[in-house]
Amino acid sequence: MGKELCLRLQVLDTPGSSHSSLEHEEVKHRIKKALSQQFPGGLHMALLVLRADIPFCEEDNQYTVKLAEELLGPTWNDFTTVIFTHGDKLSETCMKEDEYLMSAPKKLLTLLEKVHKKYIFRDPSDKSLQKERAILTSQMFDYVKNNKYQSLHFD
């Protein structure tokens, strides 16, 4: 549209939130507060990070999906992309991404359907960090663009 667009990445990591010693409501409160502080203009994309090299742990991941839905609201799935880390481990076993997904548990496939099949396999093999970052950024920007640059606002 005649304008130069720039993608500014901001990250709020919530490691091990399902394994926190805090009560569920306290975890939600702290993350929600951090989201509204870090993203006052809204959030264009949330990344749900899963490891491709270990079996899909339904209990942990269902907690994370439920938490995302509670924090981001009913349209969470429009603003969420799944990132599969350790994609290089699939390459080592000569498994392609589509083969991985064909053998994936039904719960994982359901999750991918919920997020409108927005997923990225992170495969750092044979790439410099800068090149990998450019590839991931491009893919994320495409998802944001396909979502018409909408952002999710927090109460």
Automatic annotation (TrEMBL):
Which molecular function term from Gene Ontology is one that the record holds?
Answer: GTP binding
Keyword Nucleotide-binding assigned to the entry: answer is: yes
Task: Kindly give the Gene3D superfamilies that the UniProt entry links to this protein.
Answer: P-loop containing nucleotide triphosphate hydrolases (3.40.50.300)
Q: Which InterPro entries match?
A: G_AIG1, GIMA/IAN/Toc, P-loop_NTPase
Alphabetical UniProt keywords: GTP-binding, Nucleotide-binding
The segment(s) forming the AIG1-type G domain are 8-133
Q: Does the keyword Zinc-finger apply?
A: no
The similarity comment for this entry is: Belongs to the TRAFAC class TrmE-Era-EngA-EngB-Septin-like GTPase superfamily. AIG1/Toc34/Toc159-like paraseptin GTPase family. IAN subfamily.
State the protein's name: GTPase IMAP family member GIMD1
Source organism per entry reads Pelobates cultripes (Western spadefoot toad)
